[in-house]
């Protein structure tokens, strides 16, 4: 009986309306999770009791919890605290987000009304919902920005995370980006490398990205680059174990330069190699804007 209880896993799926909760549920169902949509937060302890009494027959559960007002947060907080005090079930909170512009476009395409603005414009409901969800986003163990993700990409992100049942593991996502295209909204840490010499002003380097050896070497050759990287690695090697200890399942590190093509790409590639991977850490490097201006 104890073995089944120890393996029990509870995932709470929440976030902005239109950000992909349906795809998240379908992905977890494919992984064998028992999924329940729109569960009132006050019923979470009862569900935990059901899991523990199942003797391991119900080991993986995903609950979708949508915004229903300010009392939602009080009920959810109380239920999660009760879970910690009375059950051995570990839980994670997966928060799905997207930019206002992307959410508005999705509502236009689907011709749906926003639940918080049934008679008004979708943007009004989105902005209201974002204010209400601000605290909950801070509780999340994993935040995924779906703005630039296709459904299959989102499914792959979720499945790659929850296929690994080891809750002590942490996924480190290093993403380069261009400030002129906006800051990644799911980033936990943002580092601005626009102070480094810019390969954009070297004609033969301009067409390539930071993944090109010549561009990479150009970014790396400066003393200020080496000093910055030494300090940055020292900070990350301190922070990542602290995040894992806190229970976070993912850390997103954003590295930004002006266009997200040269300096940020090279630094992200360097971090991906230097941070490495272990039994408790997986590293993923992506470049959001590196190919944006190529035709």
Report a brief summary of the structure.
The chain is built from ten helices and nine strands. The chain has 295 residues and is of the alpha/beta class.
Explain the layout of strands and helices.
Elements: H1 2-7, E1 9-15, H2 21-30, E2 34-36, H3 44-53, E3 60-64, H4 71-86, E4 90-97, H5 100-110, H6 122-139, E5 142-145, H7 151-162, E6 170-178, E7 189-192, H8 213-220, H9 223-246, E8 250-257, H10 263-275, E9 281-287
Parallel strand pairs: 1-3, 1-4, 2-3, 4-5, 6-8, 6-9, 7-8
Helix pairs in contact: 2-7, 5-6, 8-10
Task: Give the SSE string.
Answer: HEHEHEHEHHEHEEHHEHE
SS-based structural class?
Answer: alpha/beta
Helix content: 40-55%
Q: Write the CATH architecture name of the largest domain.
A: 3-Layer(aba) Sandwich
Instruction: Report the major sheet.
Output: 5 strands, parallel
Q: Give a count of the beta strands, DSSP E runs of length 2 or more.
A: 9
Number of domain units? 2
Quote the average pLDDT: 84
Instruction: Enumerate the spans where pLDDT stays under 50 for 5 or more consecutive residues.
Output: 1-7
Task: State the CATH topology of the largest domain.
Answer: Rossmann fold
Side by side, the strands of the main sheet go 2-3-1-4-5
Our count of helices gives 10
User: What's the oligomerization state?
Assistant: single chain
InterPro entries: P-loop_NTPase, RapZ-like, RapZ-like_N, RapZ_C
Binding site for ATP: 15-22
GO molecular function, one term: GTP binding
Organism: Paenibacillus methanolicus
């Amino acid at each position: 009986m104890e073995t089944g209880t120890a393996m029990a896993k509870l995932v709470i799926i929440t976030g902005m309306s239109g950000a992909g909760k349906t795809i998240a549920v379908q992905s977890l169902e494919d992984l064998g999770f028992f999924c329940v949509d729109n569960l009132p937060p006050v019923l979470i302890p009862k569900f935990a009791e059901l899991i523990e009494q199942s003797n391991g027959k119900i080991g993986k559960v995903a609950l979708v919890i949508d915004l229903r007002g300010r009392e939602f947060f009080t009920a959810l907080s109380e239920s999660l605290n009760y879970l910690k005090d009375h059950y051995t079930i570990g839980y994670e909170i997966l928060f799905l987000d997207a930019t206002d512009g992307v959410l508005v476009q999705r509502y236009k395409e689907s011709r749906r009304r926003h639940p918080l603005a049934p008679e008004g414009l979708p943007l009004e409901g989105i902005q209201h919902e974002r204010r209400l969800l601000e605290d909950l986003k801070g509780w999340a163990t994993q935040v995924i920005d779906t703005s630039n993700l296709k459904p299959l990409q989102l499914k792959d992100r979720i499945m790659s995370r929850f296929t690994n049942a080891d809750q002590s593991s942490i996924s480190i996502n290093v993403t380069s980006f261009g400030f002129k295209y906006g800051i990644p909204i799911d980033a936990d840490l943002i580092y601005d490398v626009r102070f480094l010499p810019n390969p954009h002003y070297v004609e033969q380097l301009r067409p390539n990205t930071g993944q090109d050896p010549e561009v990479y070497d150009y970014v790396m050759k400066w003393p200020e680059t080496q000093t910055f990287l030494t300090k940055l690695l020292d900070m990350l090697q301190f922070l990542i174990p602290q995040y894992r200890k806190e229970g976070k399942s993912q850390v997103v590190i954003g590295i930004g330069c002006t266009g997200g093509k040269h300096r940020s790409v090279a630094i992200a590639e360097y971090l991906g190699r230097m941070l490495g991977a272990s039994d408790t850490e997986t590293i993923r490097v992506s470049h959001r804007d590196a190919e944006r201006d190529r035709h």
